[in-house]
Design goal:
alpha+beta
């Protein structure tokens, strides 16, 4: 067991236990999820303890399995304030037998309440699958609208889906759709763009706005990356993992950007002169 107030906490609204609760997971993750599911609230959930109790797996295997369970929607790491009168924070791992979406976890972390699914209407039959339209995220919608704002940035559905995690990071840092569109379409090359998707990816990385500091009036809960335990805004986590732990590419150092052809030729000329001088001496 962890210290009082710490450790595992069961998420609300779980479905009753069933034989195939974790059938969608690989064998290792399913075993660990079933083990954690039967632990009482308050049980230690750190990697070292779980590895010691389950000698079949080492610490690295347990860590990877927990990350996969987070990506599958079964757990989140959260920092919580004890109450408004005490500034003490506790570190808890919320576990849900029922897999949850990022939207459900974000709502729960922000409010402490489960996200209620909209009730199905009984007045008419459900639409056929081909007629149902998924609600696009703000990041996807902003990317899809770039081509309408400027015809030089037409992105396909596949392009928008591939760039959505990078665009979501912008909105997680407080960018509005209007500012996003203005930053991506400002100063476009007048002669056209050969690869709109590559150009947009480059701008998403190079112009990424800075992280905003947490407000002085701190929230009751702060989400953590499941892997590195870095506190993040919930919308910056996909599957409970931050951008670094997801392996999302980052922008190169400023010294490697925007090297003009003239600068390359000048540098090459200096190298040639140095080689000739060295050979003569």
């Amino acid at each position: 067991m962890a210290s009082p107030g710490y450790g595992k906490q069961s998420a609300p609204g779980e479905l009753p236990r069933g034989a195939d609760d974790f059938g969608h997971l690989p064998a290792r993750e399913a075993y660990l999820a079933s083990f954690v599911d039967h632990l009482p609230d308050g049980a230690a959930m750190d990697v070292k303890t779980l590895a010691a109790i389950n000698p079949l797996f080492g610490q690295m295997a347990v860590r990877t399995a927990l990350n996969n369970l987070s990506t599958a929607g079964h757990l989140r790491r959260v920092r919580e304030r004890v109450n408004a009168d005490r500034p003490q924070w506790v570190f808890r791992t919320y576990f849900s037998r029922t897999p949850r979406s990022d939207a459900w976890w974000n709502h729960f972390i922000a409010t402490g309440e489960e996200l209620q699914a909209p009730e199905a209407s009984t007045d008419s039959a459900p639409d056929p699958p081909e007629e149902r339209c998924a609600v696009a995220s703000p990041a996807y919608a902003a990317l899809a609208g770039l081509g309408l704002t400027d015809a030089r940035l037409p992105l396909s559905a596949a392009d928008c889906a591939a760039l959505e995690p990078l665009a979501a990071e912008w909105f997680a840092r407080g960018t509005t759709p209007a500012l996003f569109t203005a930053a991506l379409t400002a100063g476009l090359p007048p002669d056209g763009i050969h690869s709109p998707v590559a150009f947009t990816r480059r701008r998403l990385l190079d112009k990424l706005p800075p992280e905003r500091p947490l407000p002085q009036q701190q929230a009751a809960r702060i989400a953590e990356c499941t892997d590195c335990r870095t506190p993040c805004r919930p919308h910056a986590l996909l599957g409970g993992l931050c951008r670094t732990c997801r392996g999302t590419p980052t922008a190169p150092p400023p010294s490697h950007r925007h090297l003009s052809p003239a600068a390359v030729r000048a540098h090459a000329a200096r190298v040639r002169r140095a080689v000739i001088t060295s050979a003569r001496s």
